[in-house]
Specification:
The chain has one domain: NAD(P)-binding Rossmann-like Domain (Rossmann fold). By secondary structure, the protein is of the alpha/beta class.
Length: 307
């Protein structure tokens, strides 16, 4: 039973609607809205209280792209949480290829590094009880219909994963949409590693699918953003089984932390060639996802950047 839940990136989009849905579950007693902007978080908190009729939301200031901010937030958390939903991410802002002080690209920092630090710190402080869910994406195994290629790593070695995380694997060819899938692939493997290392906690990866109304692509270049948000997502993609409502994407996260039939260490997402409908174990589509050596290498590689 998950009474206390933390959601990163909870002030808008999928994160906010996940909080809304979880607040309607009677067993939920507190939801931490882990957000980097207090003003936006306060607006979201008020909106959630009005829409759910419950005053169970608490703001925790956290910028997942900044490990120091993550550590400070965990130090201010005075109770364990039952469930963690690592929703924050996106395509890395206006300069996704730029490096942070830790030496990873902004896109890696926002989607992966901060969440790795968050989980490590929670475990170190004995503040994570039941389940940790990483927001992955079908892009982690490739989406042919949208032109997002399967990550083509040659060896899946520690060095190769590190080159993905610091961007050197893409010198001269940095396409944020493609790199996003590679980073999510590394994060998904990391979660599977954690599931084996910490069997008393459920670690799963879950894609929200092709979700309309998400904030994740707001940093795309102007023309791409307009085409994606106002033409592709609402008109063409639903017809092709490539997008669904915001509430559907959020429901996947709710199910991910509550459905006992979902197994630890597994990456759940849509069936091949669609981004909607029921979720399936993605290793049935791509065997590399259950390679334990690859999982361990991804974990070691991302920890190279954690001081």
């Amino acid at each position: 039973m998950n009474k206390v839940i933390m959601i990163t990136g909870a002030n808008a989009g999928i994160g906010k609607d996940t909080a809304r849905q979880l607040a309607l579950v009677k067993d939920t007693e507190k939801i931490y809205l882990a957000c980097r902007n207090r003003i936006k978080a306060e607006v979201a908190k008020k909106s959630l209280e009005e829409s759910t009729g419950r005053s169970i939301f608490e703001i925790l200031i956290m910028d997942v792209s900044d490990p120091d901010s993550v550590r400070k937030a965990v130090s201010q958390l005075y109770e364990p949480i039952d469930a963690l939903i690592m929703n924050a991410g996106g395509v890395g802002g206006k300069s996704p290829e730029s490096l942070t002080k830790e030496g990873v690209t902004n896109i890696t920092a926002a989607n992966l590094l901060g969440h790795v630090v968050l989980v490590d710190e929670l475990l170190k402080a004995d503040k994570l009880r039941n389940v940790a869910l990483f927001a992955s994406s079908e892009a982690a195994r490739g989406i042919k219909a949208t032109g997002m290629n399967r990550p083509q790593l040659k060896t899946n070695s520690v060095d190769e994963f590190a080159s993905v995380f610091d961007g050197t694997a893409f010198e001269g060819k940095f396409d944020a949409m493609q790199v996003y899938g590679w980073v999510k692939y590394g994060g998904t493997l990391w979660i599977s590693h954690m599931a084996r290392k910490h069997p008393h906690i459920k670690f799963i990866s879950m894609s929200p699918g092709g979700t309309r109304g998400t904030e994740g692509m707001t940093d795309l270049p102007f023309l791409k953003r307009i085409l994606f948000k106002y033409i592709g997502m609402p008109i063409f993609m639903p017809l092709m089984g490539l997008s669904h409502k915001l509430s559907k994407g959020a429901q996947r996260f709710v199910d991910g932390i509550s459905n006992e039939a979902l197994n630890s260490g597994v990456f759940y997402a849509s069936k091949e060639n669609v981004l909607t409908g029921p979720v399936v174990d993605q290793s049935t589509i791509w065997q590399d996802l259950k390679n334990e050596s690859y999982q361990d290498n991804a974990n070691e590689a991302i920890h190279r950047f954690i001081k």
